[in-house]
């Protein structure tokens, strides 16, 4: 390569660098900023911040906790769905738990949350494949296997999520004629075939799915209408008003499907709680 060719190539590269820097580093960000100033878009671009008395209290677009210093739900407030973003609803840590549907940890989370919500709302918190104690109803079945890997004649059965130290007896007495044991700390039951037990819980649990699972972003500010309806009685008791009064406020913040067919009807928890504070403040 001659020196003149070398200069031409690098001069072309420098010109491309300058042009792209101006277009993508200056013109494009300025264009996006100008678009964000359009009425109807400006509030969203600024984070849709909600203020009370001139002080920011949250965002319409990001969920948040309504709990006391110890993490216990405040009874006068509707509760948001769980979050796996950092310590909860952290925009810089947005994301899901990445636990698959057959993951034991996910099942235990769902079961424990369902029991907790059931106690809080005074309803049946049971759900399929969960024990009454709020863990996954899963057995490790040990014994000879067939060609497909299924245990043919169980010789030992262990309730893997129920440690002996925390339960008097496993959730199931026997499985295929073999007595069920509770798990012992330090023992490895990976040799056993995992068998989930559906149990006697209703196919459609009282506690809805969004009350026990986090959203994909971990920032969802909304809950389902079913989860909101479940909380009405508790909130009404805490605010010393009738359930119908709370439902009247709730109806103001129910939104339908986007464009009429995307997603499901939902309720914005922050806006609902703020309106309840205005209409029916907790005193004493």
Overall morphology: flat
- Biggest sheet strand line-up: 5-6-4-3-7
Poorly predicted runs of 5 or more residues: none
Q: Could you describe the largest sheet, including whether it forms a barrel?
A: 5 strands, mixed
Helices and strands: which structural class? alpha+beta
By DSSP (H or I, 4+ residues per run), the number of helices equals 6
Mean pLDDT: 89
Describe this structure in words.
The radius of gyration is 27 Å and the shape is flat. The termini are far apart. Helix 4 (225-239) crosses helix 5 (243-252). The chain is α+β, with helices and mostly antiparallel strands and 284 residues long. It has helices at residues 3-36, 42-45, 104-121, 225-239, 243-252, 269-279; strands at residues 49-52, 55-59, 138-142, 156-163, 174-175, 178-183, 193-196, 222-224, 254-255, 266-268. The strands form 3 sheets. The chain has a 5-stranded mixed β-sheet with strand order 5-6-4-3-7, with no helix packed on it. A 3-stranded antiparallel β-sheet has the order 8-10-9. The protein has a two-stranded antiparallel ribbon with strand order 1-2. The model has no long low-confidence stretch (mean pLDDT 89).
Would you spell out the secondary-structure blueprint of this structure?
Blueprint: H1 3-36, H2 42-45, E1 49-52, E2 55-59, H3 104-121, E3 138-142, E4 156-163, E5 174-175, E6 178-183, E7 193-196, E8 222-224, H4 225-239, H5 243-252, E9 254-255, E10 266-268, H6 269-279
Parallel strand pairs: 4-6
Antiparallel strand pairs: 1-2, 3-4, 3-7, 5-6, 8-10, 9-10
């Amino acid at each position: 390569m001659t020196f003149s060719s070398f200069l031409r190539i690098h001069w072309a590269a420098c010109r491309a660098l300058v042009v792209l820097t101006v277009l993508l580093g200056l013109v494009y960000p300025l264009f996006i900023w100008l678009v964000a100033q359009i009425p109807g878009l400006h509030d969203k671009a600024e984070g849709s911040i909600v203020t009370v008395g001139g002080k920011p209290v949250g965002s319409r677009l990001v969920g948040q906790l309504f709990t006391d210093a110890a993490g216990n739900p405040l009874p006068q407030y509707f509760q948001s769905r769980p979050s796996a973003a950092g310590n909860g609803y952290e925009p810089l840590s947005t994301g899901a738990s990445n636990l698959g549907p057959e993951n034991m940890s996910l099942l235990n989370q769902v079961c424990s949350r369902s029991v907790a919500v059931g106690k809080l709302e005074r309803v049946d918190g049971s759900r399929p494949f969960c024990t009454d104690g709020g863990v996954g109803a899963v057995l490790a079945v040990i014994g000879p296997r067939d060609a497909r890997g299924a245990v043919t004649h169980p010789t030992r059965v262990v309730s893997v999520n129920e440690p002996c130290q925390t339960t008097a007896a496993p959730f199931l007495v026997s499985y295929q004629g073999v007595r069920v044991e509770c798990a012992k700390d330090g023992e490895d039951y990976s040799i056993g075939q995992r068998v989930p037990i559906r149990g006697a819980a209703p196919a459609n649990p009282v506690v809805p799915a969004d009350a026990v699972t986090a959203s994909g972003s971990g920032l969802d500010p909304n809950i389902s209408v079913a989860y909101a309806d479940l909380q009405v009685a508790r909130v009404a008791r805490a605010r010393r008003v009738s359930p119908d009064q709370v439902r009247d406020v709730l109806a103001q913040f129910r939104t339908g499907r986007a464009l009429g067919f995307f997603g499901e009807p939902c309720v914005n928890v922050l806006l609902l709680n703020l309106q309840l504070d205005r209409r029916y403040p907790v005193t004493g």
